[in-house]
């Protein structure tokens, strides 16, 4: 029943598990944003991914089934 989610089109449960683990959340977050063509957003995730962005990713993934998107540049 789980549809596709944010990280590389993986299922929701797998993406949620990846979001909970700090290192995988950081790597998957900036790679996902770079793959979307959002270079500035990818760089922000690369620099600030271990801070509040990680917590927001967990919250957004659990509630809305996608990662936190602050900027779309």
Topology:
Blueprint: H1 12-20, H2 22-35, H3 39-48, H4 52-64
Helix pairs in contact: 1-4, 2-3
In short:
The chain is mainly α and 73 residues long. The chain has four helices and no strands. The protein has helices at 12-20, 22-35, 39-48, 52-64.
Description of the structure:
This protein is mainly alpha-helical and 73 residues long. It contains four helices and no strands. The chain starts with 11 loop residues before the first helix and ends in a 9-residue tail after the last helix. The relative contact order is 0.19. The model has no long low-confidence stretch (mean pLDDT 85).
Question: What are the salient characteristics of this protein?
Answer:
single chain; 73 residues; mainly alpha; 4 helices; globular
């Amino acid at each position: 029943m789980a549809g596709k989610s944010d990280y590389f089109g993986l299922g929701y449960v797998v993406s949620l598990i990846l979001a909970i683990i700090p290192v995988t959340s950081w790597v998957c977050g900036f790679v996902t944003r770079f793959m979307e063509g959002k270079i500035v957003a990818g760089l922000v995730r690369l620099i600030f991914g271990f801070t509040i962005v990680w917590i927001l990713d967990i919250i957004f993934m659990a509630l809305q089934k996608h990662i936190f998107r602050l900027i779309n540049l």
